[in-house]
Design brief:
globular, 453 residues, nucleotide-binding, Spore_III_AA_AAA+_ATPase, P-loop_NTPase, alpha/beta, ATP-binding, ATP binding
C-alpha cells in the first residue's frame, strides 16, 4: 500500500498564503501538530488545499481510502475531483458510488457490485461501531455510518470525509471576540456546521490576535459521535488545546453537557447536533450558569426552530397568549397569538446558507419577536468576496424559501395565520402542534396552557 501511494502524483496547486492575505486570523500559541489549523500549506504538504476566499482545507483522505476495497480505492486516488470528495456509499448488491461537493447526484466507481465480503473488510478497517451505528478511522475526522438489516447484519456503509478547515472563523471573529455570546448554527446537512465549530474550538482555546487576546479560554467539547475531535482517545490536532469529553451513548449527551460544567469549569462548551428537548433544557441550564455555548441544531432557518416544539427553548420558547377583547381590537389581531415566553438561550443565531454566505440574527430575541408578529427582522448578511474579505450588510430577512404573500408584501406572517379561524379551532390547532399542555385538544385545555394578557 505504501508503494501504491508513493506512485501517485502529489496534490497539485498548493501554495502558501501570504501573511497579508485579507480576512485572515493568525492564531498565536504553540506550534500545531501536523499543521492542523495553520493558515498556509507547508511546501510539499499533501492533503492540503487552499480554497477561494482565504480558507485552507486539510484531510486525511488516504486513511479513509485504504479502508476501502482496492477496486474502489484506485479510481478515487486518481480522481480529478478527489479534493472535493464528500462521501462514498457502499450498498450490498449495488455498485459503489462517490459523491462530490457541489455536484448533483453521484458517480459509480466500478461495474462490480458490493459483496458482503467487501463490507466485512471495510468494517474491520475502521473503529468499533457505537449504538448510533457510527464509527471512525482512528486519528482522523472521517465518519463511517452503517446500514443494517432487521437481523442486525451489515448491508451498507456511508463513508463521510471529514476535513479540517481553517479560515471560516473569519466570518464571525468580531462576534466570538466578545466572551459570553452564545452562538447557535443552523444549516442544511453538509454545509459545514461541524467544521466551523471545530475551528472555533481551536481558536477560542488558543487565543488569537484577531480576537483581541492571546490568552485562550477554557473550552470543553461534548463530542457525541467523535465528529468534532475525531475518532480515538487523543483528540485530533484540529481542535487545538480544547478539551474533549466523549459521550458513551447518544442518549446521554445532555448529562455529559451538564457534567462538563459541574466538573471541569469551562468558560465555553461546544456541542454538535442539539436535537431533543432534554438537550435543549441542558443548554438553558448551562447558559444560566454563565457559560458560553456554541452549538449546532437541526433546521436550516430560524423559523424551523420556532416551529419545532422540541427546540423552541433554544430561542426562548413559544407560548400562546389570550388577549382581552380590547387588546385584540387595538392590535388588530385575534384573541389568541404566539409570543416568546422567556429569554433566549442563544443570543446569536447563524443560518449557514452556503459556506461563504451566512445570515446572522443578532440579537436573536429581536428576530424571534418580529417573526412571531409576522414581520421581517433586520439581519446581517455576511459574505466572503474573492479577495477573502468578509462583507457585512444589514438587510430585511429572507428565509430563502421564495414564498409569495399578498398581505402587504409580508412573507413571514405564518404566526398570524390563525386569525382566519375561530378561537376554539385555533386553540385545538396549537394543542396538536405541541405548544399547549394538558390533555386532549379541547379549548379549555388550551386556555390553561397559555397566558392571559
Amino acid at each position: 500500500e505504501a508503494a501504491e501511494l508513493a506512485s501517485l502524483p502529489a496534490t497539485t496547486g498548493v501554495k502558501a498564503l501570504p501573511a497579508s492575505t485579507p480576512g485572515v486570523v493568525h492564531v498565536a500559541g504553540a506550534p500545531e501538530p501536523r499543521g492542523a489549523g495553520s493558515r498556509s500549506c507547508a511546501p510539499g504538504e499533501e492533503n492540503c488545499l487552499p480554497e477561494d476566499g482565504g480558507t485552507i482545507v486539510r484531510d486525511d483522505l488516504d486513511a479513509l481510502l485504504f479502508a476501502l476495497p482496492k477496486r474502489i480505492r484506485e479510481p478515487l486516488m486518481r480522481h480529478p475531483m478527489r479534493t472535493s470528495l464528500l462521501e462514498v456509499v457502499l450498498d450490498l448488491g449495488r455498485r459503489p458510488e462517490a459523491r462530490f461537493l457541489g455536484v448533483q447526484g453521484g458517480e459509480f466507481l466500478c461495474d462490480s457490485e458490493i459483496t458482503a465480503e467487501d463490507l466485512e473488510l471495510a468494517e474491520e478497517a475502521v473503529g468499533e461501531f457505537g449504538s448510533d451505528n457510527r464509527a471512525g478511522v482512528t486519528g482522523t475526522l472521517h465518519r463511517i455510518s452503517a446500514l443494517r438489516s432487521r437481523r442486525g447484519a451489515l448491508v451498507g456503509l456511508t463513508c463521510r470525509v471529514g476535513r479540517s478547515v481553517s479560515g471560516h472563523v473569519d466570518m464571525i471573529r468580531d462576534i466570538i471576540a466578545q466572551p459570553g455570546e452564545s452562538i447557535l448554527f443552523l444549516g442544511a446537512p453538509g454545509v459545514g456546521k461541524t467544521t466551523v465549530i471545530r475551528e472555533m474550538a481551536r481558536v477560542m482555546a488558543e487565543g488569537a490576535a484577531g480576537l483581541g487576546t492571546t490568552a485562550g479560554r477554557r473550552v470543553v467539547i461534548v463530542d457525541t459521535s467523535n465528529e468534532i475531535g475525531g475518532d480515538g482517545d487523543v483528540p485530533h490536532p484540529a481542535v487545538g488545546r480544547a478539551r474533549r469529553m466523549q459521550v458513551p451513548d447518544p442518549t446521554q449527551q445532555q448529562h455529559v453537557m451538564v457534567e462538563a460544567v459541574q466538573n471541569h469549569m469551562p468558560q465555553v462548551v461546544i456541542v454538535d447536533e442539539v436535537g431533543t428537548n432534554e438537550e435543549a433544557l441542558a443548554c438553558r441550564t448551562i447558559a444560566e450558569r454563565g457559560v458560553q455555548l456554541v452549538a449546532t441544531a437541526h433546521g436550516q432557518v430560524l423559523e424551523n426552530v420556532l416551529k419545532n416544539p422540541t427546540l423552541t427553548e433554544l430561542v426562548g420558547g413559544v407560548a400562546p397568549v389570550t388577549l382581552s377583547d380590547d387588546e385584540a381590537r387595538s392590535r388588530g389581531t385575534q384573541k389568541t397569538i404566539l409570543e416568546r415566553k422567556g429569554p433566549v438561550t442563544f443570543s446569536v443565531v447563524i443560518e449557514m446558507r452556503e459556506r461563504n454566505h451566512w445570515i446572522v440574527h443578532r440579537p436573536s430575541d429581536e428576530s424571534v419577536d418580529m417573526l412571531l408578529l409576522g414581520k421581517r427582522p433586520i439581519v446581517e448578511s455576511r459574505r466572503r468576496n474573492e479577495a477573502g474579505e468578509v462583507e457585512v450588510q444589514e438587510i430585511p430577512y429572507d428565509n430563502g424559501a421564495g414564498e409569495d404573500d399578498d398581505r402587504n408584501g409580508e412573507r413571514y406572517s405564518w404566526a398570524d395565520q390563525l386569525s382566519g379561524i375561530s378561537e376554539h379551532d385555533a386553540l385545538n390547532e396549537l394543542q396538536r402542534a405541541g405548544y399547549l399542555g394538558g390533555r386532549g385538544g379541547g379549548a379549555m385545555g388550551g386556555r390553561r396552557g397559555g397566558r392571559r394578557l
